[in-house]
Amino acid sequence: MIETLLENFTPENNITIWLIAAFALAFFIAYQTFPTILYVAKEKHLMDEPDSRSVHSNKTPTLGGIGIFVGLIVVMTIVGAFLNTKVLLLVMGGLTILFFLGLKDDLTVLSASKKLMGQLLAAGLLIVFTNTRIIGFSMILDIDVLPYWISVGFTLFVYILIINAYNLIDGVDGLAGTVAFSISGVFVYLFVNSSELSLATIAIALCGCLLAFLRLNFSNKNKIFMGDTGSMIVGFLLAFFTISFINMAQLDKTSAYFKASPALALALLFYPLIDTFRVFFIRVVIHKTSPFKADKNHLHHRFIRSGYSHLMTTILISSINVVIIGIAFNLLHLNLNTQIIFLLLYGSVLYLLPFLFKKITKN
Question: Molecular function (GO) terms listed (predicted)?
Answer without folding.
Answer: transferase activity
